[in-house]
């Protein structure tokens, strides 16, 4: 059975900016590396980390697309 609180937490990540997602991902990794968590806590952190990493990738893909679009416009302008 799904945990509604966890689902809400993971859905909230979709509203994070790049820096917030990155900073929280760094904290998740530190906590996992320190160890000492039980299996359920570790899995929950892992899932949060995956969601945060995905959010960072979305931001980076969007930024990459914006750069490519800007370069394309520049190329078109210089060809004219």
Automatic annotation (TrEMBL):
Q: Where in the cell is it found?
A: Cytoplasm
Q: Main localization of the protein?
A: cytoplasm
Which reaction equations make up its catalytic activity? Exonucleolytic cleavage in either 5'- to 3'- or 3'- to 5'-direction to yield nucleoside 5'-phosphates
| Top-rank EC class of the record's enzyme | hydrolase
Q: What is its EC number?
A: 3.1.11.6
**MF terms (GO), sorted A to Z:** exodeoxyribonuclease VII activity
Which keywords does the record carry? Cytoplasm, Exonuclease, Hydrolase, Nuclease
The highest taxon in the source lineage is Bacteria
Q: Which NCBIfam families match?
A: PRK00977.1-3, xseB
Q: What does this protein do?
A: Bidirectionally degrades single-stranded DNA into large acid-insoluble oligonucleotides, which are then degraded further into small acid-soluble oligonucleotides.
How does this polypeptide assemble, per the annotation? Answer: Heterooligomer composed of large and small subunits.
Q: Which PANTHER family match?
A: EXODEOXYRIBONUCLEASE 7 SMALL SUBUNIT
The record's listing under HAMAP family reads: Exonuc_7_S
Could you say which protein family the record assigns here? Belongs to the XseB family.
Q: What is this protein's name?
A: Exodeoxyribonuclease 7 small subunit
Q: Origin organism of this chain?
A: Nocardia vinacea
Its organism's taxonomic lineage begins at: Bacteria, Bacillati, Actinomycetota, Actinomycetes, Mycobacteriales
Q: Which gene encodes it?
A: xseB
